[in-house]
Specification:
Length: 82
């Protein structure tokens, strides 16, 4: 999960796709936090649309649940003004 590829930078508007996680993981959640004037909209199962007029950042937190534990990893996406 640490090596799961996520786009590092988006200019103006773009999609972040986590839909392949369902192939690797059974039970997981995706949370996100926003720094700056960035809009995030969930447009599909594991697909998020990011939009910004000026710079900011979105941090996605993927939490995978096992039988007796959970594992979390954070992926950061820098958003440049468009």
């Amino acid at each position: 999960m640490k090596a799961y590829p996520v786009v590092a930078r988006v200019k103006g508007e773009g999609l972040v796709d986590f839909s392949n996680l369902s192939v690797m993981l059974r039970d997981y959640d995706i949370e996100y936090s926003v720094e700056g004037p960035v809009d995030v909209e969930r447009v599909g199962e594991g697909v998020y649309k990011i939009r910004a007029r000026s710079g900011g950042r979105v941090v996605f937190r993927i939490v995978a649940y096992g039988n007796f534990d959970e594992y979390a990893v954070e992926k950061s996406v820098e958003v440049l003004g468009g």
